[in-house]
Specification:
heterodimer; A: alpha+beta; Herpes Virus-1; B: about 500 residues; mainly alpha; 21 helices; globular; Sestrin homolog isoform X1 (chain B); cytoplasm (chain B); Sestrin (chain B); AhpD-like (chain B); WDR24 (chain A)
Chain lengths: ~750, ~500
């Protein structure tokens, strides 16, 4: 049996299989056909809408096929008619009975499973009617006292009983012989129930509702018990138990979700199997007597036979390992472990048979949870928090923000990040705009005669010179710029971070830098030896700074030529010949000071941001991007997915640090729709009145029902708390935040005197 | 709630209101809006409905939602502009400014952000010909620069439909400008109001000019009977209507004295009740073909009904700035140009309960519950009275009105025999309903007084409420079906 489908001329509302599951009838507003199900296709047997006298009785909400006689079909029409069709006849005579008794649309018809000729209907007018096909009128009418009946179904276990579910969320059980009152009634859902289905074997009734749940009720006793609840993502329109699988049930949604889900009711959050063939919502499901094959209809005008082997298995794809890292760096890791059965070791054969045939039996499983404690104290964490809180991301001019953020970064010792901010400022600040303007004026005549590594060189030149206009010391800028350019080159030097770290800063005067130079070169020479030791100290710093500073220094104080000579052997040792090659040309061109070219720093910036992100520091990348604002459009090669990942990463980290305000700000400032929409989700939670349990909707301190403010009084000053109310979850007493703080700074017990030892942190 | 004494202390204005639940609601409305606006006062006839109305309105304007607050009020202004409802525009302008809206936006549509401007197409279509709305409109909004998220679109749609249909209540009830609005206050020579100096507190409570002072003229439904929302007694009622109604209605007149229109003798309530009885006894069903024909008949007949009054002469400049394309107005569904491509909307294929509710709740918090309650209350509201008669099953009459309104907008209920409409709603009432629904700006207090002369005011207000709700539901159905289609494909 494979997946086959056939397309109809209009949306299909319902389907029904005949008793030996070889034919299927489908009905909708413009469709009413019978197909026989062949090996690999559907064959149309009969089109009941071929008749000339089409009318609304042909527009079905539901179709049922007699479970005893293959020739009889019943339909529920949108105009309130219940029609019985005899397939042996033709033309107008096919419509054997038309019951025009319901005042409103009929939602459902259902044949009795054993007695021929008997069927029941449920309608929008709130009544159910019981028909005998041999009579011209309904045999019995049942008043549900609700606005409308959405589904009716005869019980397969008790021949005279049927279940009806209705708009107001109640389930009724009726005895067909007693029309005056239902045998049993209970409220099952908080919204309209759209469907119900009796379990073929157990005395379970499944109900599906607009409140996005499927509930399984055990009706063995007089008091129904709720055995299982499945949470779905959309309102459920239909449910059907899977034959031969006690715990499986198929469901299809009424809106939004087009797939048909098969649930294992013991696993209520993730479907056991899903079928995604339909392009619009599915409107009906029928199993072909077999657990492996079922048919479905949909509003996308198709009828499909699904084979279970083609299902996607969301449950089996679910990750069975879980990992979380706390803000303190502690790690929890849970995973499933193979179980060794505690009985005698089974032979391979036995084991195989048990797993393959009865797959939905319980099996033993075990899992382990590991906790890893972070030992070494990592100062990243505190600085992350500090930076997140103190960065300014909006509301000031671009250079101001950069300056501020650079200062903030420096303050917590992240001078490399601080440098990034300054570089960004330089590259995209006013100056950049100025250069662009100049470029547009055509004030450029540049450089055909530059050699191999020319692009990079040009870049250097521009900024170098541009910076000269702004800063007293041109060289500082060159340093900064260069740092970015060489990111890729310097990747091999992670271990030297330490050197670059304290020095990469604009604000150093000449003298300081000279001092640093000495320190640097010493450090550098020692670097190789101390590599292992240094690795432990590696953290946020840019790897390439070691080199940048050398460039800068070379450029500045001593005659430049000497410097490369000093250092190049080291470079070669590290097989970074490219770096070495570049330097001479670079130096030469600076000395020439060519006319100012236009240069787009985006590539380098992207490179640098990516580098940070890869090192786990999305904070810098995201903050820089946010501050860049309009300049972001220059970063054309940075694709949106990557940025979305960074943003999500940053937002999640902020969440873990409970920096809600910063998180909200980042979401607000995010320019990617999928992120900024996160703030459009409501996060409101109403507290309930402590007396009548009604949600306090208008304000948190006055109950509209009992007009009491008792629940919101401060236990210390006995006034109504209208601002932040803090309470103990143990004894539920609380009050003004400040009062409680004050109280618990001196006392341990609850201020009301209830004796509870509240824990205030 | 118990019997409320007639002569209560005039120092406490709230005690004048006889009905406990209405009173509580008025307090709530006052707290919400910093005024007890005329709309709430008129709705006070039906406290159970007013409750839902206030909750919904408060939620969509001030509750949780994806749109910024100033946007919400501006969207309300745009919506009210479609029917040139200066009353609502003024109120929303104030709210807009209170929410910190940019004052320059109030200079007109050319001053607002492109994002808001993009909404205007949907506003226009939904207000007048909702059946023209299609996927491409939603797509235009949600793609490209200044794009809307789907949640925002749905929020905007709810606000738009709310205010479109509120216009269908404001005009037909003859609700006047608030007293602090331009044209809202007249020195009341005819109203004999200035004789009681003790009532200042009343005026303060309603947030209006202190000169409207006599507490017995408080425009609140005034129920001497114990049950909520029952009928007013004659004298008080006239005062009430005077206060909020148009000024040319002098206080001495009672409704029964208004001369019957010579051209159209109105069908009396007794006849109406007789017809309802016959209909409910009628068991013989007609053929479905006949039913379909009847639907079309009602549709085409309604197309022949004109608006009750002449169109308002021109648009005042102060509201004209919020309107674009004034030529785009209601066109009869039966006369639509797109007869082929736009079929009748079958409520059985996309209903509020099954589909629209779930969708709106999904995209915009819990607004579905509020709307659901509001629709249900409006649809099921009844006091089993009709005129002076009690214990009347009014369901047929109400259903006829509801379905007639939706039929005007091209929505068909498969299970309804539209022949009933012609039997239960006489031509003058149909004209009134059609005007109220499609051209509310043409309806005045006079038209309100002319129809349903044997009915009580509370019942007439009830009819207007049904116009409001049935229209809002119809617009929402069209809009949400379109959103649904946009989402599935």
């Amino acid at each position: 049996m494979s997946t086959i489908s056939v397309l109809q001329e209009g949306p299909v509302n319902a389907l029904a299989l005949n008793k030996d599951n070889s034919q299927v009838a489908i009905g909708g507003r413009n469709v009413f056909k019978v197909y026989s199900i062949e090996e690999d296709c559907f064959k149309e047997i009969c089109n009941l809408r071929a008749s000339k006298h089409l009318n609304l009785s042909f527009s079905c909400n539901d179709v049922a096929w007699s479970s005893t006689d293959d020739n009889y079909l019943a339909t529920a029409a949108t105009n309130g008619h219940v029609c019985v069709w005899n397939l042996t006849k033709s033309g107008k005579a096919m419509q054997e009975q038309v019951y025009q008794e319901h005042k409103r649309t009929v939602n459902k018809v259902n044949f009795h499973s054993s007695e021929p000729y008997r069927l029941i209907s449920g309608s929008q007018d709130g009544t159910m009617r019981y028909f005998d096909m041999r009579c011209k009128a309904a045999v019995a009418t049942f008043l549900s006292n609700t606005e409308s009946v959405r589904d009716v179904q005869f019980s397969p276990h008790m021949p005279h009983t049927f279940a009806a579910v209705s708009e107001n969320g109640s389930v009724q059980l009726w005895d067909v012989r007693r029309t005056e009152k239902c045998i049993q009634q209970f409220t099952a859902h908080s919204g309209p129930i759209f469907a119900c289905d009796w379990h073929p074997e157990a005395t379970w009734l499944a109900t599906a509702s607009r409140d996005k749940t499927i509930k399984v009720w055990d009706l063995t006793t007089s008091k129904p018990t709720l055995d299982y609840t499945i949470h779905t993502i959309a309102s459920i329109g239909h449910v059907k138990w899977r034959p031969q699988r006690k715990y499986h049930i198929a469901s299809c949604a009424l809106v939004v979700d087009c797939s048909i889900n098969i649930w294992d009711i013991r696993r209520p959050f993730i479907p056991f199997a899903a079928f995604n063939e339909h392009k619009d919502i599915a409107s009906g499901v029928a199993w072909r007597g077999d657990s492996q094959v079922f048919l479905s209809t949909s509003r996308d005008c198709s009828l499909i036979q699904h084979s279970f082997k083609d299902a996607s298995r969301p449950a089996s794809k679910a990750n069975i390992q879980a990992l979380d890292i706390s803000t303190k760096g502690n790690t929890l890791f849970g995973m499933r472990v193979p179980v060794s059965t505690n009985t005698t070791k089974p032979t391979g054969l036995m084991r195989k048979s048990s797993t393959s045939t009865i797959s939905d039996q319980f099996h033993q499983s075990a899992s382990v949870l590991h906790q890893f404690t972070h030992v070494s104290v990592c100062n990243d964490l505190s600085s992350f928090e500090f930076l997140a809180k103190n960065y300014i991301l909006y509301g000031r001019s671009f250079p101001e923000m950069c300056e501020h953020n650079a200062a903030v970064a420096k303050e917590c010792g992240k001078s490399n990040i601080s440098t990034i901010w300054k570089i960004v400022n330089t590259m995209y600040g006013e100056l950049y705009v100025k250069i662009q303007a100049m470029h547009n004026n055509g004030g450029l005549n540049l450089m055909n005669n530059v050699d191999a590594s020319s692009t990079e060189k040009k870049n250097n030149d521009v900024v170098g010179e541009a910076a000269a206009a702004q800063f007293s010391s041109a060289d500082d800028d060159v340093e900064g710029e260069d740092q970015v350019d060489h990111t890729a080159v310097a990747n091999g030097y992670h271990t030297y971070n330490k050197y670059g770290h304290p020095k990469g800063d604009f604000s150093f005067g000449e003298n300081e830098l000279d001092l640093e130079l000495d320190a640097l070169s010493i450090d550098y020479r020692n670097g190789m030896r101390n590599q292992n030791q240094l690795q432990q100290q590696e953290d946020w710093t840019l790897p390439n700074e070691a080199f940048n500073i050398r460039h800068e220094i070379r450029d500045r104080s001593p005659p430049p030529e000497q410097f490369p000579n000093n250092n190049s052997p080291d470079f070669n040792d590290d097989s970074h010949s490219s770096t070495v090659d570049e330097q001479p040309t670079w130096l030469v061109s600076v000395s020439k000071i060519p006319p100012m070219p236009i240069w787009d720093p985006s590539a380098s910036l992207i490179e640098s941001l990516k580098h940070h992100a890869e090192k786990g520091d999305v904070q810098t990348s995201v903050s820089v991007l946010i501050v860049l604002g309009e300049h972001r459009k220059n970063l054309k090669t940075l694709d949106e997915n990557t940025v979305t990942h960074w943003l999500m990463g940053y937002i999640q980290t902020l969440e873990r640090f409970r920096l809600w305000n910063v998180k909200a700000l980042v979401i607000e400032l995010a320019w990617i729709p999928s992120i900024s929409q996160m703030n459009q989700q409501s996060t409101r939670i109403n507290t309930n009145c402590s007396q009548c349990l009604k949600p306090l909707q208008r304000s948190g301190w006055l109950c509209d029902r009992c007009h009491s403010t008792d629940a919101s009084r401060c236990s210390i000053c006995h006034q109504v708390v209208k601002g932040l109310y803090v309470w103990c979850q143990g004894c539920s007493h609380g009050g003004h935040l400040m009062h409680m703080q004050e109280w618990f700074s001196k006392n341990k017990q609850c201020p009301t005197g209830c004796g509870h030892l509240c824990e205030y942190r | 709630m118990g019997q409320i004494p007639q002569n209560v202390s005039i120092n406490c204005p709230l005690e004048i209101c006889p009905c406990q639940s209405t009173r509580t609601l008025f307090v709530e409305a006052f707290l919400q809006n910093n005024r007890l606006d005329h709309v709430s006062q008129v709705m006070g006839y039906h406290p159970s409905y007013l409750d839902n109305f206030l909750k919904t309105q408060n939620f969509i304007l001030r509750g949780d939602g994806p749109l910024p607050y100033d946007y919400r009020h501006y969207i309300a202004i745009m919506a009210a502009g479609r029917h040139q409802c200066s009353y609502l525009i003024q109120l929303q302008k104030q709210e807009f400014l209170v929410q910190g809206g940019d004052q320059s936006w109030l200079k007109g549509l050319h001053c607002i952000p492109q994002k808001l401007r993009n909404l205007y197409d949907i506003n226009k279509i939904l207000a007048h010909r909702p059946w023209l709305l299609n996927k491409s409109h939603i797509e235009k909004l949600t793609k490209g620069k200044d794009s809307w998220s789907l949640a925002e679109v749905v929020h905007a749609i709810v606000i738009l439909t709310h205010f479109h249909s509120l216009c269908s209540f404001v005009f037909p009830c003859g609700v006047n400008q608030e007293l602090d609005q331009a044209g809202g206050y007249r020195y009341p020579e005819t109203l004999q109001m200035l004789n009681n100096p003790g009532g200042n507190s009343v005026a303060a409570a309603t947030g209006v000019s202190k000169k409207s002072s006599d507490p017995k003229d408080i425009p609140i439904p005034n129920d001497t009977r114990p049950t909520a929302g029952k009928i007013l007694n004659g004298g008080r009622l006239n005062n009430f209507i005077n206060k909020i109604g148009v000024a040319d209605w002098t206080s001495g007149r009672t409704q029964n004295q208004s001369p019957p229109s010579p051209t159209e003798p109105e069908v009396g309530i007794s006849t109406l009740m007789q017809r309802m009885k016959t209909l409910s006894e009628q068991t013989q069903e007609c053929t479905p073909v006949e039913l379909a024909k009847r639907f079309e008949n009602v549709e085409t007949q309604s197309a022949e009904l004109g608006a009750v009054g002449p169109e308002p002469q021109g648009t005042p400049a102060d509201i004209g700035i919020f309107i674009e394309d004034t030529q785009f107005i209601y066109q009869d569904f039966a006369k639509r140009d797109e007869h082929q491509s736009i079929p009748t909307f079958r409520v059985q294929d996309y209903s509020w309960d099954d589909h629209a509710y779930s969708l709106v709740n999904r995209l915009y918090n819990d607004v579905g519950n509020l709307l659901d309650d509001k629709f249900k209350t409006a649809y099921n509201l009844t006091y089993y009275t009709m005129g002076g008669r009690t214990d009347v099953d009014t369901s047929r009459f109400r259903r006829a009105i509801w379905n007639y309104i939706q039929c005007l907008l091209g929505i068909r209920h498969d299970d309804y025999d539209y022949g009933e409409i012609n039997q239960l709603l006489e031509k003058s009432l149909k004209t009134f309903i059609k005007s109220a629904c499609c051209y509310p700006e043409c309806v005045t207090k006079k038209d309100y007084l002319k129809v349903l002369r044997e009915f009580k005011h509370s019942e007439k207000v009830h009819v207007n409420l049904m116009v409001l709700e049935a229209r809002m539901q119809a617009e929402l159905l069209y809009a949400l079906r379109t959103v649904n289609r946009y989402m599935t494909n």
